Amino acid sequence: MVTRAIGVVLSALVIGCAGSRQMVQIPPAPISPLSALSISSYPQLKTQIEAFFPDSLFPPSNVGVRIVSLTRGERLYSLNDNMLFNPASNEKLLTSATALMNLGTSYDFSTAVFVDTLQHRVILKGYGDPLTSTGDLDSLARRVAPRLSGAAPWRVAVDVSFFDDLPWGAGWMWDEEPAADGMFISPVTLNNNTITVRVLPSPQAGTPPLISIDPPTSYVTLENTATTVVDSPKVRLKISRKWVERSNTITVAGQIRLGGRPRTEQLSLWKPELYAGTVFAERLQACGIPLAGTVTVDTVTSAMVELEHYVHGIDTVLTFLNKVSDNLSAECVLKTIAAKKLGVSGSAEAGITFVHAYLSECGVDTNRISVADGSGLSRYNLTSPATIVRLLERVYRDNQSFPLLYHALPIAGVDGTIGSRMRGTPAAGNLRAKTGSLGAVSALSGYVQTLDGEMLAFSILMQNYPGATRPYRLVQDAIGAYLAGLKREDFR
Hints:
disordered N terminus, alpha+beta, 12 helices, 19 strands, Beta-lactamase, 5-stranded mixed sheet
């Protein structure tokens, strides 16, 4: 940048001194704006990395990079590494590391069943386990049913006191609903607080398609105005929920072709704690337990007895959280940190104070970043590549946390959100990293080993681009493959 400015000034001086003579202005050699902003002690490495950034993408889009050698404690390359970006799901790295520090590597997330024999009540209490499935509730019901005696009907309730009553994160987009990744947060969960809707064409044209839901439950109702047609559909099939009305009515509209493939959609549900409670009640009924009334919200008291519980370990939760990039898991983990450390209903706001404390230990000035949620859905999140790499460095030097987080990250070319990326390169089966994706945001941060076993930590954050994300992911993949293929002799 400075060289270019000097060249322009010198050219102007030459022209001014030439008087009336015709002079040919020779422009200075162009300098990449990235080169002017980047730092590296290794010119060849610097040049190669910047060759991956096409002028068609950067600028106008923004990119920030930081790469360090963990083995040698050395910064290899940085570009805009203190600039703030929306990290998208890279935020889950902050949540995961904070959870390991505050909850420990052997913590269990649980869902428990309590009984009040005097009032014939069964209460399902959630302690923030984000992985509770239909099978888990079925198992709990079968184990509890033989211990519910008497002919009088039982009433079922859910206890949601482990978390506060805010069902969404700060800065989440209003139109995320009813998408599965814009689910509602609750301490009692079921199937990621979503339901699966499957639509099959009817065997006869002109009639409504066939609809099934998983799990089958009375908690939702169906409204089917769709039609099976012979020719290609002229009206797109739409599977949704009456989310504006805060209703759990599933709507299917439009057209589906006769003999065509079935359509499947996952939808978030309003008040998912009652959804979990209703499915649990229906499983108890299937075991022969008589029930009365609808599922309500209540609170477990000290006089009640815990009959059974089901748990998922923190290793399982964090693996699912990072491999799949599951938003509900991240939010439940964040609120659980607050609930366990403070002994009150867990909130995101309180959980974030522990994230800040952990980042401070990593040497991060938390006044210069913004943490708004645990998953990265929020548009209020702001962080830098330098912050993420400092976190990765801190975890790497923690003998207890590092193995768990390292194995929880997606593996290039193997599994998770980068299972189809970097295949056939030195990064495949080697690079482990967390992705991040929002509209006009893409990120990749994690660990990679060079050919001679040197462990590197890196963070690549990109934002403010129109159109598809794929070209930006290809840049990330090129850098990841290059780093995995390096030897120390190439660092020059």
